[in-house]
Amino acid sequence: MKDRMTWEETIKFIRTQPEFDYLVDKAYFEENLPLNVERFTKSEEFIETLKILKQYQPFAKTILDIGSGNGISAVALALEGYHVVSIEPDPSETIGAGAIRKLKHHYNLTNLEIYEAFAEELQLQSESFDIVYTRQCMHHAYDLDKFVAEASRVTKKRGLFITIRDHVIFNQKDKEWFLENHPLQKFYGGENAFQTVEYRTAMEKAGLKVEKEIKYYESVINYFPVSKEEILNNFQIRRSKAISNFKNKFGILSRLTFFQYLYLKRKGLNESKKLNENEIPGRMYSYITIKT
What we know:
By secondary structure, the chain is of the alpha/beta class. It has two domains: 7-224 and 278-291, 3-Layer(aba) Sandwich (Rossmann fold); 228-277, no CATH class. It has 13 helices and seven strands. It has helices spanning 7-14, 21-26, 33-41, 44-56, 72-79, 97-107, 144-153, 172-181, 185-188, 196-205, 220-223, 228-250, 257-266; strands at residues 62-66, 83-87, 112-115, 129-135, 155-167, 208-214, 284-291. Strands 3-2-1-4-5-7-6 form a seven-stranded mixed beta sheet, sandwiched between helices. Helix 5 links the parallel strand 1 (62-66) and strand 2. The longest helix is centred in the C-terminal third of the chain and has 23 residues, at 228-250. The mean pLDDT is 92.
């Protein structure tokens, strides 16, 4: 294997590796493109996203989907009745604009347009969309300020710019930890993340008012496909094992509640840590903004 693959080569490769079956399934990377769309449209993430779109732009008709990837979001939104313009720089039929064109033909969508372009270089009319939507894309920006400025430029006044599932890091060390733990970074080297202050500053500079910053554990949009129940159950399993080890190790001293509390705290398993996003490398945030 060469040092670096393209994104398309990476996806084709992991489809052949059993250890990536879960990722291929949960990230909608299956070769069967319509199956990806059908599963995405029924996901908790998309259902919750639609609620936000209806809440903030109940009369919206036009949506720009930036960084559409293999088309699951663009097609899902078009199937909801929106007129969708899809922006995707990758031309491939596996994971890019070619895949979206296949899906457009499959679903016979007349309300979906597809352009191959980078978000920083949109060749679209200013203030032409009710909603600008981007899913797992903004953190890939090669120029974050320009990315957000272009998104804002094409959003109508009082329109909605919504970003879904972008990786957040707290500092450079945290970023290194995220990149080391990302399962696909070693193949194609294209992952990235920004600090919250960088996202928010870019938005404010572009004339966007941040209505809500949705942190990792605040919505299923971010932590999907894991459920809140799974998260809490996993925490309780880890906590129970730690308590058992504590009792075996310290015997009679384990009966002292305060001693047990200190032990669990050192292990990061006290109750206040059950939803600790610091333990998630590159945890995902979403942003709801309105163009002022």
